[in-house]
Each structure stands twice: as C-alpha cells, then as structure tokens.
From TrEMBL:
GO-annotated cellular components: plasma membrane
One GO MF term attached to the UniProt entry: transmembrane transporter activity
Gene3D superfamilies linked: MFS general substrate transporter like domains
The protein's name: Major facilitator superfamily (MFS) profile domain-containing protein
Domain of life from the UniProt record: Bacteria
Keyword flag Transmembrane helix: yes
Length: 436
C-alpha cells in the first residue's frame, strides 16, 4: 500500500474501533439508562436509519463534484457532534436528533471512503484493498466492543457518556487523518466500461439505465436483508424464542461471526481473488443456505441444549465466512461498473441499498419469533435466490469486470481478453488507478 492508502485504512480502522464502543449498548442506553423505554429505543434506531436514507441520495453527486476528502471530513465532524450529543442527551427529542446526525454522518462516510480506496488502487489491487478494509473494520469493532463492555455500567450514566465521547473523538481522528491524505492525480481511462452498456447521462437516471448496476443493487439488497438485516433482529428473535438460545449464547454467536471473518478473511481472499466474482457470490448464497438449514436444526428439539447452541453458533460463523468472501467482491465490482466521473454516485447508490435492507430487516422478527419454521424456509429460499441472481448478473459483466485478475494479463502484454457479452476491445491502461 502507498502512503495514502495506509492512512485511509488506518483512519477507517480507528473509526470502527470507536463505533464498537457504542453499537452493542445503544438499546440499553436509551431504554434503561435514560429510562425512556423500548419504544424510544426503537425510535432511536429508526432515526439512525432515517438519517442515512435522507443523506445518501445526494452524497454521490457531491463526492463526484467536490472529491471524497471534504465529504469524509464533513461527515466525520457531523457524526462526532451526533455521538457526543447522544451521550449527553436525556430526553427523547435530543436523542432522536443526535441519532439522526450520527446516522447521516456514518452513512455518508461509507461511499466517500470507498471512493478514496478506488482512487488509490488499481483494478488488480482493489480486491485486496477492500478485503483489508473489511478485516480492519471487524477487528476494530470487535476490540472496541470488548473494551466498551468492560467500561459500561448500567448504574452509572456517565460510563455511557464516556463511550460516546470516545466514539466522537475517533471520528475527529478520522477527519484529521483524511485531511492529511494526498490523493493521487492520475489519468482516468474511458474504455473501462463497454460503450454500448454505459448509461446515457449521469446521476440517478443514468445509473438506473445501467442494467448490470441495477441487477447488482437488487442482488445487494437481497444479500444485506438476508444477512446483516437478520443478525440482531429476526435471527436473534428466532434463536431466543424458538431455539431457546440464551442471551449469553447469542453473544458467543456474534463473537463467532466476527472471529470467522478475522480468521478466514485472507485465507478466503487467496481462494476468491482469481475467480469470477459472480460465481463467488453464488457460492456465498449456497453457504448461507446451509447456515439457515443448520439454524432450523437448532429449533427442532431433537438434541440437547448444547447441540442447539452449537448449531446456532455455527450458523453465525458460516455467515461470517460468506461475509469474508463478499468483502473483496461487492465493493470492487461497484467501482469497476462505474463510468468515469460517477464512482461516488455508484458507491452512494449501493450504500443506500444496504441501508434500506437494514431498515427492513426487523420485518423478520414476527416470523422468527412466531412462525419459526416458515421463517427458516423463507430464508433458505432467499439464499438460493442469491445464487441464482449472482449467476444471472455474471451474464451482464465483461470478462475483466467479472474476473479482475484478467486485467494483469492485458497490462503485461498477454493475450487479449476474449470478447463476451458487451465486452470491451482491450482495456488500455487497465492497470492504472481509476480516477472518479
């Protein structure tokens, strides 16, 4: 990694470390420590998601026009204000406004940081760059949550204020680190996308005319709804209500998820980075199908409580392996699909899809708690649908978009990439960094 990439990754890891201090304890803080009840805590989560949904539609154009650096700095400052305000708030309205600012700031950072990584990488190195980002995010979240759990005390509101204060400082650290980054000024290439498949015009209208990107957004929504959207909502309700999983076992399951990501990330990377992205995503769908089947086994009652707990923990670990396979696949593919000058727009659109999936994730709670086997059956079908959607997406991608390792062959003077559906001629300069 160059100096710019190292600073981006360091800032990203420190921010995740700060977020890890507060994410596991937000519900307890609002509902119990501030004494506002479960409805107020739910409203805080809604405000958090609403802030993201309001900010993201306009974020992409600002990134492409002004560059990602000022966007990250502005978002980090807004998130810092939201975090410290949340830690000091005692009433419902101040908490909701703080959550709104914090949610908007965190959401805007994602596409802006992703665009910075795109600018500082090449098509052949981008896979590892995003895999490393995901690895550091999960490591930071895990360590932050572990330390935060030792500090927090439900009888002392000041301990929660301290946690939110640490988070606010980490956002300001990110702003300072990013302000010191010197972004490379490189010549972009216009033939990265086939001309006949490039969207006419820019902005949302152009993006919606881009068939491959629309299909990727649909696939991404299903992926995020079936995985992240269920972690702390439907699947947790299923485990505690139908499978009889204790809260402590649920904590072990979440730890197994993070541990699987941290342990498997670079092993998985070696296996997927030279393979077709569409087939990697399809394999994730199959792995998650197995995970949901094992989750269903935990609620059948044919074994001991220990077997049920082991099955439930295994489910979360398998989800983690799938996440490790997606991290070097989805984000680089979004960047490679983006036409020149629209990387920020495409990253923001995909971040918006993720937020929408997360916001709708709790819809699985009534099924998970009340009709558990129907819940499992639905998500087994959804996971198989992921595999089908991924293979269908592969038909819309050029050979280099589906398998970026081919760009090294072209850059080194190897045989030309075979023509495929809407394939470009030869991507001249494909090994150079893409400038948004």
């Amino acid at each position: 990694m160059g100096a710019a990439m190292r600073r981006i990754q360091a800032g990203n890891a420190l921010t995740a470390f700060g977020i890890g201090f507060t994410v596991p304890f937000l519900y307890i803080y609002v509902a119990q420590v501030r004494g506002l009840g479960s409805m107020a805590a739910t409203s805080a989560f809604v405000a958090f998601a609403l802030g993201a949904l309001v900010a993201l539609p306009v974020t992409g154009r600002v990134i492409d026009r002004r560059g990602p650096v000022p966007v990250v700095i502005g978002a980090a400052v807004a998130a810092s204000v939201g975090a410290i305000s949340l830690g000091l708030s005692t009433g419902l309205v101040p908490i909701l406004l703080s959550a709104l600012a914090l949610g908007a700031g965190q959401a805007v950072m994602q596409p802006a940081l992703a665009t910075m990584i795109v600018w500082c990488s090449t098509p052949s190195t981008r896979t590892r760059a995003f895999a490393f980002q995901f690895f550091m995010q999960n490591l930071g979240l895990g360590i932050g949550g572990l330390i935060g759990g030792q500090i927090v005390d439900e009888t002392r509101p000041g301990s929660f204020t301290l946690l939110f204060g640490i988070e606010a400082v980490m956002f300001l650290v990110l702003a300072g680190v990013i302000a010191s980054v010197r972004m490379p000024q490189v010549q972009g290439f216009k033939d990265a996308m086939p001309k006949d498949s490039a969207p006419a015009g820019s902005g949302w209208k152009g993006l919606l005319r881009h068939k491959a990107m629309v299909q990727l957004c649909v696939l991404g929504f299903v992926l995020f709804f079936a995985c992240y959207g269920q972690f702390e909502s439907g699947l947790a309700a299923f485990g505690t209500e139908a499978a009889g999983i204790s809260p402590s076992t649920l904590g072990f399951a979440l730890a197994a998820n993070t541990g699987a990501i941290v342990v498997a990330q670079f092993v998985v990377l070696r296996l997927v980075e030279k393979r077709r992205r569409s087939r990697v995503i399809a394999l994730v769908g199959l792995i998650w199908t197995v995970a949901w089947v094992i989750a269903g086994f935990s609620a059948l009652g044919h074994g001991s409580a220990m077997m049920a707990a082991a099955a439930f923990i295994t489910t979360y670990a398998l989800f983690g392996i799938g996440e490790a396979m997606l991290s070097p696949t989805l984000a680089p593919l979004v960047a490679d699909l983006a036409p020149e000058g629209s990387v920020g727009q495409y990253n923001s659109a995909f971040a918006l899809v993720k937020q929408m999936a997360l916001a709708l994730g709790p819809l699985g709670v009534p099924l998970g708690a009340g009709v558990p086997m129907l819940y499992i059956g639905i998500f087994v079908a959804v996971s198989l649908g992921i595999a089908w959607l991924a293979l269908r997406l592969g038909g819309q991608l050029t050979p280099v978009q589906d398998n970026p390792s081919l760009s090294r062959v072209v850059a080194q003077g190897g045989p030309a990439v075979p023509a495929g559906p809407a394939a470009p001629a030869v991507v001249a300069g494909a090994a150079e960094p893409v400038r948004a």
